[in-house]
Design goal:
alpha+beta, seven-stranded mixed β-sheet, 33% helix, 23% strand, globular
């Protein structure tokens, strides 16, 4: 049995799960558990005081890096010389900011201390990545997610300055398109990500695409972006 097969036995088949309920609950947030989850199209999402809840919603919200749906206004903003964009240079700071920066219409955060520690460990293992957007040497915005095969699984983003998270996302899309990534998994529909080109697809379509994506070697280790 391969390492992937050994990890995969931890989760039920998400194809049989209800579209809007957890696939499973409990377990751990260790690196092997997280890799097993993402390889099966599942991700953790829960609040403080709850058990770990594992989700595979239907439909799934995907963005295709080669779809060329970036607006001209965002491209102009991203190319303004005031921005500096990096990757994997401040992962802990990015995930902590995603947990701490207030969001409109949202109270609290689902990014618990345990989640922060787990994804930092996944970053140190070479699977989780961040993109940082700097303004005057200050962290103005960014995002983080997980990379497996030719898929990127977006987790969260934040901004302290207007447009900073969009600029970080723009450079992520450019990089993934150049590396021939198949999709960015945005998990669930939002108007913000829809405006950036994401679209809803049936879960079974996503899982079929994921299976093919995992046949491609994972781009592990720290990333570098052209900016």
């Amino acid at each position: 049995m391969t390492l992937r097969q050994r990890r995969a036995v931890a989760f039920p088949n998400p194809r049989n799960a209800p579209p809007d309920q957890p696939v499973a609950w409990g377990g751990e947030l260790g690196v092997d558990w997280l890799l097993a989850a993402y390889e099966n199209g599942i991700f953790p999402w829960y609040s403080k005081g709850q058990p770990i809840l594992w989700w595979s919603p239907d439909p799934r919200f995907l963005l295709y890096p080669n779809s060329d749906r970036i607006s001209p206004s965002l491209e102009r903003e991203a190319n303004r010389p005031r921005w500096k964009v990096t990757a994997d240079s401040a992962f802990p700071e990015v995930i902590e900011a995603c947990a701490e920066v207030p969001r409109k219409g949202q109270e609290g955060t689902w990014i618990t201390v345990e989640m922060i520690d787990a994804y930092i460990a996944l970053h140190e293992a070479g699977y989780a990545h961040s993109v940082e957007c700097w303004l005057d040497d200050n962290l103005a915005g960014g995002l983080y997610g997980v990379s497996l095969g030719a898929g990127f699984f977006g987790e969260s983003m934040f901004f302290r300055k207007s447009n900073a998270s969009k600029v970080a996302f723009y450079y992520l899309i450019r990089a993934l398109a150049g590396w021939r990534f198949t999709f960015i998994d945005c998990q669930v529909p939002t108007g913000h990500l829809g405006s950036l080109g994401a679209t809803a697809v049936p879960r079974n379509h996503f899982l079929d695409l994921l299976r093919k994506t995992l046949e491609i070697p994972t781009r592990r280790g720290n990333w570098m972006l052209e900016h």
